[in-house]
Amino acid sequence: MSQPGFDFDDLIEDDAGVPTYGVSELTQEINQALRRRFFDGVWVRGEIQGWRENGPHAYFQLVETMDDGKRAALDVSFFAPARIKLRPLLARNRLQLGNGMKVRIQGSLDVWVQNGKLSLKMFGIDPRYTLGDMLQQRDAVVRRLAAAGLFDANRHKRLSPVPLRVGVVTSLSGAAWHDFADEIRRSEFGFQLRIIDCRVQGEFAVDDVSRAIRTLALSPKLDVIVVIRGGGSRTDLAVFDAEPIAEAIAFCALPVITGLGHEIDRSIADDVAHASLKTPTACAGFLIERVTAFTDELDRHWLRIANTSTEKLARTNARLEDLAHRVALQTTSAISLAAQRLSSAEAQLPTLVRRAITEQSATIERAATKVSGEARRHLDLATAVLNGRQERVKTLDPQATLARGWSITTRGDGTVVRSPDDVQSGEELTTQLADGVISSTVT
């Protein structure tokens, strides 16, 4: 059996002077080189994405979008000791790390031996960088709102003097809602609340809050909308610096009141709202005070009306009593005078009656004489007229004409015959004479 032949002519030249590393050894060498190069750590800036927590540790990517639109990313490990150490610094600046937050962090570079990936072990942060970026974004939103004429738009909306119908944008699972609702309940006023439960922090909060405001703005039965949440970090408050929420408030047809639970900072939502209060409880108190002021003013008006009415009634009663007294005196005097006049008239009445009867009798006699003469004259005149008309009637009476020898011939249908042409041969005719009738036939 032949052995295969091996050709070693193309073997690499002797590399005994160049070391060969195992994977773990090479990783250790890289890590040592990184520590020598960045022995004090390295500062890196970017935006947090993919934040996740695993027990006391946190992991995320620090992302940068380059000029060509491509994305550069660096894995970051934020272990428990570093988180505990940085907790007071973050708390003093009221920052809470999370997705979308731009940061400048310090850490040590490390290649993990198990997968060969480069990562940054975070142990420091510059809060001023994050706060400055947040301030720049906030100022840019404010400038755009002011340029569009939206910054003061909601403050010009008229707030009802009795804002009892209230739309509420909040998270029902938070303490803010309970504080607000308890304060409203204790007021014992008849508030009517329409609540939209939404997220008020986190990556979906901006869409939830702005959509809730727009939804409530369409309701025709609301007087005001309140947006409330409890206290939190400065990054939590940054949700209410978002332009969509500010625009939703600016375009809202109803006045919007904010109670975002931040005693120190103001958000853009606070700036563009009709009114802003420090806490949800204060927001409820604002509405209660307005309703109380209205009811107090109403009570003052009613009291003023009652006092004025009482005074006017008292003055009217006094005038009526005085008038009644004067009427009584005048009535007594008038009755006494009338009685005197009646007695005098009663004494004169027989004489006046006799005089009146005598005068009326003479008047009647004169009228009777005049009527009798006029009646005879009219009767004579009417008799003469009647006699004349009777003579004329006799003259025109056909019977009188017949008596003088005239006759009237008529056809069978009663028509008078005036000409021979009016009749035909054989036709029956009737001739009326003064003392009889002759029937004849035409031949």
Fold and architecture overview:
By secondary structure, the chain is of the alpha/beta class. It folds into 4 domains: 23-125, Nucleic acid-binding proteins (OB fold (Dihydrolipoamide Acetyltransferase, E2P)); 150-292, Response regulator (Rossmann fold, 3-Layer(aba) Sandwich), CATH 3.40.50; 348-396; 400-441, no CATH class. It starts with 22 loop residues before the first helix and ends with a strand. The strands form 3 sheets. The chain has a 5-stranded mixed β-barrel with strand order 1-2-3-5-4. The protein has a 5-stranded parallel beta sheet with strand order 7-6-8-9-10, with helices on both faces. It has helices spanning 23-37, 80-92, 127-147, 175-187, 205-217, 234-237, 243-251, 268-272, 280-396, 398-403, and strands at 42-54, 57-65, 71-78, 102-111, 118-125, 165-170, 192-197, 224-228, 256-259, 275-277, 408-411, 428-433, 436-441. The chain contains 10 helices and 13 strands. Helix 5 runs parallel beside helix 7.
**Which CATH-level-2 architecture of the largest domain?**
3-Layer(aba) Sandwich
Task: Tell me the number of strands.
Answer: 13
Could you tell me the mean pLDDT? Answer: 85
Radius of gyration: 62 Å
Number of domains: 4
The CATH superfamily label of the largest domain reads Response regulator
How far the N terminus sits from the C terminus, by CA atoms, comes to: 183 Å
The number of helical runs is: 10
Helix content: 40-55%
The profile of the biggest β sheet is:
5 strands, mixed, barrel
Enumerate the strands of the largest sheet in spatial order, edge to edge or round the barrel. Answer: 1-2-3-5-4
CATH-assigned fold name of the largest domain: Rossmann fold
Uncertain regions spanning at least 5 consecutive residues? none
| Structural class by helix and strand composition | alpha/beta
Q: How would the global form be characterised?
A: elongated
How much of the sequence lies in strands comes to 15-25%
Name of the top-level CATH class of the largest domain: Alpha Beta
What are the secondary-structure elements, in order, as H or E?
HEEEHEEHEHEHEHHEHEHHEEE
